[in-house]
């Protein structure tokens, strides 16, 4: 049996929006891609679905306790905290402010995708894996939507709540390490993992192996490179400059932020078939006439105003030696 027959259908499905710039300036576009693939395995700890590496119970084994202290020993940089565990350095903070950002972003995605959690044509999924699940908000929503499915979120930071739907679990794990699962998942989900993977083809190959035949990989990514379809965005505009710096910083970290244009070909190179991509424009602010775009624009602006530093603080300081833009840069530009 050839590979495409053995591992059917992958199709990236989710689209993510381009962002529009502020005010009545039309938007820069963000690109999102979804892909599908076979199943993923979760690596490092070789845990089964029932254990939680960061929730040691009293009297539990020393190894577990040690791991728990390692993963919560956050790094502090420029007033923010960052994950301690993992083989790669994620750009985003994990403090309360960053967690609020993630939850706000979840809402923005729901508004964008007509309240859908994913676009892949998965029916009656039994096992779902969420890569880099952050606060776990997507995983918990999907667990509630599919109460018969087992949902697992993996993450570098233990920032998920302890009250979760009974069919959702979280594990501290690093998707950039080896995966152990094979033929296991019906759906693997990834969202906003831009700048957090040194080799996407490699990651997709692991996901393909971890998916069941016929399983899907669904990915949604924003673009940080603002564009406009009706005005010229000058090179010296702060949005354009910020995008160039992000691009440079990402390249210097070895984990590019510029993934949108390549995700489809990387998925296909990894062996996925039936890959589709949808691009959507995200206005910045409520300037659009269309009601739905107005709502997207409102939430996008909120997210960027409060969150632009989250995207760039660590990379700007450590990779470029420059400071971060002020809060409100987006609205004030
Ligand atoms: C921008 S957040 C998005 C969170 C979540 N996917 C969402 O959309 O709400 C990216 C998350 O990926 C996690 N992450 C980055 N690299 C990772 C890795 N190698 N393994 C596991 N999680 C990772 C980060 O810790 C962070 O919480």
UniProtKB/TrEMBL annotation:
<protein>
    <submittedName>
        <fullName>Methyltransferas-like protein</fullName>
    </submittedName>
</protein>
<dbReference type="GO" id="GO:0008168">
    <property type="term" value="F:methyltransferase activity"/>
</dbReference>
<dbReference type="InterPro" id="IPR029063">
    <property type="entry name" value="SAM-dependent_MTases_sf"/>
</dbReference>
<feature type="compositionally biased region" description="Low complexity">
    <location>
        <begin position="1"/>
        <end position="18"/>
    </location>
</feature>
<dbReference type="Pfam" id="PF13489">
    <property type="entry name" value="Methyltransf_23"/>
</dbReference>
<feature type="region of interest" description="Disordered">
    <location>
        <begin position="1"/>
        <end position="63"/>
    </location>
</feature>
